[in-house]
Amino acid sequence: MSTSNRVLRRPRFDVSRRPFIVIWEATRACSLACAHCRAEAIPDRDPRELDCVEALELMAQVASFGRPPPLFVITGGDPFERPDLEDLIRGGRAAGLPVAASPSATSELTEENLARVRTAGATALSLSIDGIGEVHDRFRGVAGVFDRTIAAWHAARRLGIKVQINSTVTAATVDELPEIMRLVLALGAMTWSVFFLVPTGRGAGLEGLSPADFEDVLHFLYDADKIVSVKATEAHHFRRVVIERRVLEERGIDPVQTLGLGAVYERLRARLDELVGVEVARREVHRPPMDVASGRGFVFVSHLGDVMPSGFLPLSLGNVRERPLPDIYRDSPLLADLRDPDLLLGRCGRCEFRSVCGGSRSRAYGVTGNVFAEEPGCAYEPGSFPFPGDVQALVAAT
Fold first, then answer.
1. pLDDT value at position 385?
2. How far apart are CA 154 and CA 137, in angstroms?
3. What is the CA radius of gyration of the chain?
4. Cα–Cα distance, 246 to 238 (Å, whole number)
5. The pLDDT value given to residue 341
6. I want to staple 292 with a disulfide (CB 3.0 to 4.6 A). Which of 80, 192, 297, 319 is the partner?
């Protein structure tokens, strides 16, 4: 099967030996008060943060994984709270890493600062849009953040910085998705990354989606991916949805009736058609989703140097101040277990899609306290998809 026909992409290397992406939380300092903040950000920097020398050593460790080097993302908190941010980016580039930054929309997010980041060597930037206008401002806890983000988006495009737009989905923001997608289409972004709420940090107090509504949103995103490049974060069952929809399309079968899609899907899809037109919405799918998960191509390093499978899965595997990141990543018993789909419990353990999905281990842990529990946000009953042979063929071809 050609790359253009594949339903999933996989890194062209052994993800048990090296990650596809490394996220480093440079600081937890941030002047926003986002309702969902994983880091529970604070106004001031922690004096125990990795300093510049330690951070440069971390980047050297990331580079030592080999080529192609992992993408290195500097996040927070707000990375602009680090006065050495430009030095960090230059250091990462000197080590041979592609470096991206994920700043908050504070008063530091100016075109001048973005230009400095670009000159230092950052290749990409992620900005957050969780709703339109006041909806976004309420979610982020500060008035004017939406307008500041849009201004930064324009500035980044002028400076030649690739932009990823991140959107967090909760019960309160789900109906904003079509309007956000329209913005992504109008202003341009390399990827629209839709984050599904994980009950950790401040997010533990927010209302997420029911499994049925979660399913509806994933199918909406499949449709949206025919317009803009979509990535579903902490929604590993999006890969199942992509396979299901590909099978049904090849057979000429309507997914709404066959899969029992509900009111949320119909509402979002109707609004999508109003905003961009049915003709546009039927264009060809962009790149298939990447088969990467916590500990399986992805790893997170905290501001204190603690290594975790994900920032949403706060289980420390070791600390880079005491042991090199490659050793932790390759030898951690927990990461080895996370790479084994046969250890999954409940419906995930019985599911025919488990080798390409596996569910969000972060959400399973956040809801149940068991990292191997079934995905709480998934409505799929294993074995219920009516064309198992087609599924097996597509999974085998990835």
1. 96
2. 19
3. 20
4. 12
5. 95
6. 297
